[in-house]
Amino acid sequence: MRRDYFTVDIQASATDNDDPTIKIVYDGPTGELRKRLTKVDGGTLDGDEIDVTFRRQPESDGVLSLTNRLTGEYVFEATAPTADIDALVSTADAQEDPQFTVRLTDGEGESRTYELRTLLVYDHDGSLLRGQSLIPGGVEL
């Protein structure tokens, strides 16, 4: 799927009721996104089966990726502002229970929400930036 099918809006500030949130709207071909979010058994991938990563680029934007944790396949990639990802990680990390939300809406208005605790940030050469990532305690990489 093309990156320009996705619009990313990052709300880095947490409120009393909401964690920092990455809102993603997909406006590409109907059904393609759903197909990539569907497991072999016909169910939909849940938060335990999704990985979120961000790869910095030399310019101000980077690449946000959602991946199927079980198969390693990309669900999609989208362009996102580096400063917004940094703010989201910082806000989430400052919480007592660090986490963030990904809200994914397809072209038909159907939404899926994932509550996540890990967001791995890489530099443009592919090296993990541990200090700029959201990694739960006790997780070894």
Automatic annotation (TrEMBL):
Superkingdom of the source species: Archaea
Record-linked Pfam families: DUF5793
InterPro entries the record matches: DUF5793
Stated name of the protein: Uncharacterized protein
Organism the protein comes from: Haloarcula sebkhae
